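can u do me a favor
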C-alpha cells in the first residue's frame, strides 16, 4: 500500500514536471501575459510594447536551447569574444527582482549596474541611452509582471584584454556619451517617431552600421551596411541609395518588410533580421512601422556595396570593418 502511494506520488511529480516542461516549450516564444499596447492606460501593457520595439527578448531569451522567456543564457558573438546575456526576469536571486525603477533607468541610460559596474556595449545601451524616461518606467512595470525564473547567469567568454571590465573605461570615454532623452515633440512628428523607433529603441545601427577596430560604430557609414555583422555575416545597406541600399523600396514595401520579413523581391529574410521581426517588430502598430519606413527613406543615401557572400573578418590588426 505504502509503496504504491509513493509511486503514485512519484508519478504525480513526473506528471507535473512534464507539464512544466511542456508549458515552457509552448510559452518560450510568446509568453506575454500582458498584451503589448502603446495606448493602454496600463503601464505594463505599454511596457510590453516598448519591450517589443526595443527587441529585448531576442538577446535575453535563449530560444535555440529552449530557455525561458527573458531568463538569459544566450551567448552573443562580439568582436571581443562571446558575451552571455543575463537573466532579466524578476527572480530575486538570479534575475533583477530586487531592482528599483532607478536601477533600470541607470542600466539603460548609463550602462551601469546598481553596484556601479560598467556593462559591455553588447547590451546596446549606447542606443537605449536616449530612451524616454516614461518608456523606461513602463518597461520596468512590464518586467515586474514576467514569470520569475531561477537561472544563474553564465560567465562571458571574452578574450584578454576585453575580459577585464576596466578596459571599458577608455572605450566609454572615447565612444559613449549618455544621451539626454529624445525630445517628445519635433517639427515633423512622424519622422521624429520613426527616428526614435529606428535609432533609439530599434537599435538598427548595432547591426546595419560597420564598426572600426575598437568595435565603435563608424559615424560616416550610418546604417550603410556592414560586411561583418554580429553573426559574422554581412548586413545590408538600409540607406535610400538606389543601387546599394533600399532606395527602390517604397515606404509601403519597407513597412510590409518590417512586419513580415518579405522583401519586394519575394525573398524571405533569414537569421538575425528574422529574429528581430518575429520577437519584436511584427508586434508594432502599422503607424509605427510606417513612421520607421518614412524615417529610413528620408535618410541621406550612402553608396556602400556590401558583399552578399561574406569572407572571414580581417585580422584584428588590419583595421578592416566589422
Ligand atoms: C543585442 C543584445 C541585447 C539586447 C537587444 C538587450 N540586451 Fe540587455 N544585456 C545584453 C548583454 C550582453 C548584457 C550583459 C552586459 C554585461 O555583462 O556587461 C545585458 C544586460 C542587461 C541588464 C543588466 C542585468 C544585470 O544582471 O546586471 C539589464 C537589466 C538588461 N540587459 C535589460 C535589457 C532591456 C530592458 C532590453 C530592451 C530594452 C535589453 N536588455 C536589450 C544584451 C542585450
Ligand atoms: C541583430 C542584427 C540586426 C538588427 C538589430 C537589425 N537588422 Fe535588419 N538585417 C539584419 C540582417 C543580417 C539582414 C539580412 C538578412 C538576410 O539577408 O536574410 C537584415 C536585413 C534588413 C533589411 C532588408 C534589406 C535588403 O536589402 O534586403 C531591412 C530593410 C532591415 N534589415 C531593416 C532593419 C531595421 C529598420 C532595423 C531596426 C528596427 C533592423 N533592420 C535591425 C540584421 C539586423
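np, heres the sequence
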Amino acid at each position: 500500500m505504502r509503496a504504491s502511494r509513493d509511486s503514485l506520488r512519484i508519478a504525480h511529480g513526473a506528471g507535473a514536471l512534464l507539464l512544466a516542461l511542456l508549458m515552457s516549450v509552448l510559452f518560450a516564444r510568446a509568453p506575454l501575459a500582458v498584451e503589448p499596447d502603446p495606448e493602454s492606460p496600463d503601464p505594463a501593457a505599454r511596457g510590453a510594447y516598448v519591450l517589443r520595439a526595443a527587441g529585448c527578448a531576442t538577446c535575453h531569451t535563449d530560444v535555440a536551447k529552449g530557455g525561458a522567456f527573458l531568463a538569459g543564457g544566450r551567448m552573443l558573438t562580439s568582436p571581443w569574444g562571446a558575451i552571455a546575456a543575463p537573466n532579466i526576469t524578476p527572480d530575486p536571486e538570479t534575475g533583477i527582482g530586487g531592482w528599483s525603477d532607478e536601477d533600470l533607468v541607470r542600466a539603460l541610460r548609463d550602462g551601469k549596474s546598481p553596484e556601479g559596474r560598467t556593462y559591455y556595449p553588447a547590451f546596446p545601451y549606447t542606443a537605449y541611452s536616449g530612451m524616454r524616461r516614461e518608456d523606461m518606467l513602463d518597461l520596468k512595470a512590464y518586467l515586474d509582471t514576467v514569470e520569475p525564473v531561477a537561472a544563474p547567469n553564465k560567465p562571458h567568454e571574452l578574450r584578454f584584454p576585453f575580459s577585464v571590465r576596466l578596459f571599458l573605461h577608455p572605450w566609454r570615454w572615447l565612444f559613449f556619451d549618455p544621451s539626454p532623452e529624445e525630445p517628445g515633440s519635433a517639427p515633423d512628428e512622424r519622422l521624429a517617431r520613426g527616428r526614435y523607433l529606428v535609432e533609439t529603441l530599434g537599435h538598427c545601427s548595432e547591426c546595419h552600421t560597420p564598426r572600426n577596430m575598437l568595435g565603435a560604430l563608424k559615424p560616416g557609414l550610418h546604417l550603410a551596411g556592414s560586411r561583418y555583422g554580429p553573426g559574422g555575416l554581412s548586413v545590408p545597406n538600409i540607406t535610400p541609395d538606389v543601387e546599394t541600399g533600399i532606395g527602390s523600396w517604397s515606404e509601403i514595401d519597407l513597412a510590409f518588410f518590417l512586419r513580415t520579413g518579405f522583401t519586394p523581391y519575394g525573398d524571405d529574410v533569414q537569421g538575425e533580421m528574422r529574429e528581430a521581426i518575429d520577437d519584436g517588430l511584427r508586434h508594432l502598430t502599422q503607424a509605427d512601422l510606417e513612421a520607421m519606413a518614412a524615417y529610413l527613406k528620408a535618410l541621406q543615401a550612402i553608396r556602400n556595396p556590401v558583399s552578399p557572400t561574406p569572407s572571414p573578418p580581417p585580422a584584428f590588426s588590419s583595421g578592416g570593418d566589422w
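The longest strand covers residues 75-78. hope that helps!!
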